[in-house]
Automatic annotation (TrEMBL):
Residue runs in coiled coils: none
Keywords (A to Z) from UniProt: Cell membrane, Membrane, Transmembrane, Transmembrane helix
Ranges annotated as spanning the membrane: 12-36, 42-60, 106-129, 141-161, 290-313, 333-354, 366-382, 402-420, 426-445
Name under which the protein is recorded: Polysaccharide biosynthesis protein
Location of this chain's protein in the cell: Cell membrane
InterPro entries documented for this protein: Poly_Biosynth_Transport, WZX-like
């Protein structure tokens, strides 16, 4: 089955992704003017730990989207590595889709329980340590407890939201994000105004995540039922639990081959982009962590917004690749990369010009060093740029960049930690990130991906500009 990305999907992707990535920025003025700098640093530490535990799924989230798209496109089996267009049939293999979903549900439950255990033990010890100087330590620990429960639910039900994207129900998924994030903003605002601070932020995050999972499951079940109705025999089939489990074991073995690689790469990405927040909290104090965390939050939001189009087109890209439409794939990929670079570089430049005045207007208790922000913007752009190109290999079910990611992340973490112990400031630690990545990852993976797509930097930019203009004209005809 061919997956299509329409105008509504694109518009809702931008609207939904805006709320997904910018919710924290929307409530940021309220946080900056009502929460102390030390508490802000603690909240960023919550987020860093939460990001770490989500990586415990070892790549099953991204692997799920890819394999659900394969199955929805008509594939009848999962290959450990790569794919074969001869595996693809005309109709959706609903039984296969349901078996993949059952497998990932069981995996997500196990991962969620492990994550909860990690947060309840090591996470609690760490939070207790860094909050030892706060006046309201009890409130901070309660906020952490709520946050841990929220993370458990989010990890467990994550397969529903990812499956929606995998089968091409992009606008439905984005609508859910909009509603849930608006609820999070409203609850955060209300809770902070009545004086609950970090507790309000954690509770709002819990409610928002719960809404996403409930509505995602509703849309997913409805989509599967609609396909089943086209084949009454499938609707009446009841697979025994024993057969489900045995089938899940076989699927797990196939998925695990690349999922474990994706998981390790996810941990490497965390180590590369998030570990410095924890190192900064432990050695430089939560005050300096607030400035670094604020810069990271804004830069990450800009990069995420820049990558919205690529995320929206991912099911279609995979679908085109599986169906052997290589020229169509290259044009879409070039368009996504052109939009990514334009939005990322434009956003970093624009915010750097207005950041001082904007934070003053908002009455921020935390300053944003412009030098830190611009330097971070540079190396984070390069980081996300090569990450977009490695997605080409991921979509081909080929995780060939594992070794490079492991080596670079180890160098970054160990280098930053050693220099932090030696008393170096935050700028020196950031320089480690920049130097390590520019030596290999920043240039090699874009070069290799473009070579395999039979293109180059100039051709990608030209083709991307043409395709982007065509997309804009299409959207403006609404």
């Amino acid at each position: 089955m061919e997956i299509k990305v329409g105008k509504r999907d694109i518009i809702w992707s931008y609207l939904g992704s805006f709320f997904q990535y910018c919710t924290s920025l929307i409530i940021l003025p309220l946080i900056l003017s009502n929460i102390l700098e030390e508490e802000l640093g603690l909240w960023y530490s919550f987020a860093s730990i939460g990001t770490l535990v989500t990586y415990l799924d070892f790549g099953f989230s991204t692997t799920l989207v890819r394999n659900i798209t394969y199955a929805w496109s008509g594939a009848n089996k999962i290959r450990k590595q790569g794919f074969d267009t001869t595996d693809v049939k005309k109709d959706v293999n609903v039984t296969f889709v349901k078996q993949i979903l059952f497998t990932c549900r069981m995996v997500c439950l196990v991962v969620a329980l492990i994550a909860l255990m990690v947060m309840a033990t090591a996470g609690t010890v760490y939070v207790a340590y860094i909050s030892r100087g706060l006046m309201n330590k009890g409130g901070a620990m309660l906020a952490w407890g709520i946050y841990a429960v929220a993370m458990f639910l989010n990890i467990y039900y994550n397969y529903c939201a990812n499956a929606l994207r995998g089968i091409g129900l992009i606008s439905q998924y984005q609508k859910i994000l909009v509603v849930s994030r608006i609820a999070q903003i409203a609850l955060s605002y209300l809770g902070i105004k009545i004086g609950y601070g970090l507790i309000a932020l954690s509770a709002a995050y819990l409610v928002s995540g719960f809404m996403i999972r409930v509505f995602s499951k509703y849309y997913l079940d409805r989509a599967v039922k609609e396909v089943e109705e086209q084949c009454p025999k499938l609707a009446n089939e009841k697979t025994p639990l024993r057969d489900k489990i045995l089938g899940s074991v076989e699927i797990f073995k196939d998925i695990w081959f690349n999922a474990k690689r994706s998981g390790i790469i996810s941990l490497c990405s965390y180590a590369t982009n998030q570990s410095l927040t924890l190192i900064c909290s432990a050695y430089l104090g939560v005050g300096e962590t607030a400035a670094y965390g604020l810069s990271l939050q804004i830069v990450t939001a800009i990069m995420n917004v820049a990558g919205i189009l690529m995320a929206a087109y991912q099911p279609k890209l995979i679908n085109s690749m599986v169906l052997g439409k290589n020229d169509e794939y290259r044009k879409m990929f070039s368009m996504c990369m052109f939009v990514f670079s334009s939005v990322a570089l434009g956003g970093i430049t624009a915010f750097s010009l207005v950041s001082k005045e904007l934070l003053t207007l908002l009455g921020s208790n935390t300053s944003l060093p412009i030098g830190m922000f611009c330097f971070m913007g540079l190396y984070m752009y390069l980081e996300h740029n090569h990450g977009q190109y490695t997605s080409y290999f991921t979509m081909r079910n080929e995780i060939i960049y594992l070794k490079a990611y492991v080596i670079s992340s180890l160098c970054i973490v160990l280098g930053s930690w050693i220099l932090a112990v030696c008393g170096m400031n935050i700028y020196v630690l950031m320089l480690v990130h920049f130097v390590v990545q520019i030596c290999f990852n920043n240039w090699y993976w874009p070069h290799r991906a473009m070579k395999l797509m039979n293109t180059n930097v100039i051709k990608t930019a030209q083709e991307g500009a043409v395709e982007t203009w065509g997309l804009l004209k299409k959207l403006l005809r609404i």
